[in-house]
Amino acid sequence: MPDIPIDWANVNWIYVAVLAVFVFVAAFIGDALSFQHRGMAALLSALLFAAMFVFWSYYPHHLPLPTALTSEPQTAEPAGLPQQPAGPVRPRNPVTDITPPRNPVTDVTPPKAQ
């Protein structure tokens, strides 16, 4: 069996615990509503978990709890990058002409025909 490297320090344990609670509640309610039919209990549990997961992850409930798989808070600007100036940046090179320089040896214009 291949070794699966998992960085246990980067696991968001609060998020895992919240999802485990959702699975437990969904399974408990699904079992109670199915009247001991295993297939129906599994189907109801899966549907209830999907509903809870979508509500938790996508509904704007504004609670300070984890709602994403990433453990780092997302910021508007990544850390370590310099802040972009508001206006356009002028080049440091004083040359403003962007056409290539003319070469007098190769760029000879032929004389006009008479």
Overview of this protein structure:
The chain is an all-alpha fold and 114 residues long. It has a domain of 50 residues. The termini are far apart.
Quick recap:
The protein has 114 residues and is mainly alpha-helical. It has 2 helices and no strands.
Helix content class? 25-40%
SS-based class: mainly alpha
SSE sequence, one letter per element: HH
Number of helices: 2
Indicate the low-confidence ranges by residue numbers.
none
Global geometry: elongated
- CA-CA gap between termini: 87 Å
Mean pLDDT over the residues = 76
Q: Work out the radius of gyration.
A: 32 Å
- Give the biggest beta sheet: none
Secondary structure topology:
Layout: H1 13-34, H2 38-58
Helix pairs in contact: 1-2
Give short descriptive properties of this protein.
2 helices, 114 residues, mainly alpha
